[in-house]
Amino acid sequence: MPVTREGTARHRVLGRHAFRGLRTTEHAFDVPLDHGDPDGEHIEVFAREYVSAAHPTESIDGLPWLVFLQGGPGGRGVRVTSLSGWMKEAAKDFRILMLDQRGTGLSTPADRLTLPRRGKPREQAEYLAHFRADSIVLDCESIRRALGSGPWTVYGQSYGGFCTLTYLSIAPQGIREALVTGGLAPLDGPAERIYRATYARLAERNAEYFSWYPADRQRVAEIAEHLRRVGERLPDGSRLTPERFQLVGNLLGGNTRVDTLHYLLEDAFTQSMDGRRLADAFLHQVHALVTRAPNPLYAVMHESIYAQGEPTDWAAWRVQSEYPEFQPDRDEPLLLGEMVCPWLFEQDPALVPLAETAALLAEKSDWGALYDASRLAENEVPVAAAVYRDDIYVDRSLSLETARRIRGLRVWETADFHHDGIADDGEGIFARLLGLVREG
């Protein structure tokens, strides 16, 4: 686990706004790149505070803080224009802090334009080694102290749940209570065991989807076959290959968006002067789904979230060979989910400049531990977690294995939701988990 000197982030307020029933405050925090070297290089972390306008101004300072750790990795904090879903429920009792985790959004960026300033790929990889859950958690602790908060409520969705388990491992004194949705990470590696479980879940989800829309099975096959013959181009000029098209399977990962896959596929073909082609509307929609330009760290750092002392070595790509139904050259290839494969760094223009950096991270063999199993076994922080039975991203059986290893963790297992449960019934899920952590 990381060795650090406890510090407080330098803090400044960038602006305040009020609109549509909420008040926002924009914060910037100066934190060490390496929390083990607080006198070394610093970076900036941006966060936006959301407070319901129903609270009188003079009472806001008395509201407890809730910090939300979003999914990812590599995704910026959620931008909202009104309080709805889980935030509407949480804002009744909390002031909500939404981070742009290091490297994302308005925090010091890490992408194809900024990373070359660090030097060659090896220097870039060394820099990004400080962008995992342990560093995010220590940012949170520095920020909590800067805000003058006592132990606060932590809410982690998906990868944010992984970060929450790291928080419980290295700084439990900073947490009053923790809520996790779709994010109980395996406490042990290697990454291969995670991908074997998720490929199996994804195959089941493909079968379920095609049972609802049988004609889409043939449509997916037609698109894949067409892409093997015709050089279709996405709006950024890059080629849409069969394997890149398979990434639209990310839509399978939620109840609130799975049916949009059918609407996407029905837009696929049009008739041109040159024969049957993929329609512009389809290509634009696919591009929005498969490009990593808005969140390159998702691809660059993705497998590192599972690494604890061993190289990941493109685990998802290697494990895929054990599941031939996902091979893109098959007549009827299944759709993929969040797997990150090395070919993505050859085909996505936003990732091409980062290919060597990503390869070095995949080879890295000295990753530190993200979780302290002994501390989790003696955990004293109230924790509740929603485990989605059919989740294709965070496997149910691995989640329950983790739950059994965390003292006092209360599990709510449900088949009513998928990975996007908080987009489906955020109010209900948040209220239920908060009730669980506060029971007796």
Overview of the structural elements:
- Keywords: Hydrolase.
- Belongs to the peptidase S33 family.
- It comes from Sinomonas humi.
- InterPro entries: AB_hydrolase_1 (IPR000073), AB_hydrolase_fold (IPR029058), Peptidase_S33 (IPR002410), Serine_prot/Carboxylest_S33 (IPR051601).
- With 440 residues, the protein is an alpha/beta fold.
- The chain folds into two domains: 10-187 and 371-437, Rossmann fold; 191-363, no CATH class.
- The protein has helices at 85-90, 121-128, 133-146, 159-170, 191-212, 214-229, 242-245, 260-266, 280-290, 296-301, 315-320, 344-347, 355-363, 373-377, 396-403, 421-437; strands at residues 10-19, 22-32, 42-52, 65-69, 95-100, 152-157, 175-181, 269-272, 275-278, 383-388, 410-414.
- A hairpin with a 2-residue loop joins strand 8 and strand 9.
- Helix 2 packs across helix 13 (355-363), helix 3 (133-146) crosses helix 4 (159-170) and helix 5 (191-212) packs across helix 6 (214-229).
- The longest helix is centred in the middle third of the chain and has 22 residues, at 191-212.
- The chain is globular.
- The two termini are 32 Å apart.
- 46% of the residues are buried.
- The mean pLDDT is 96.
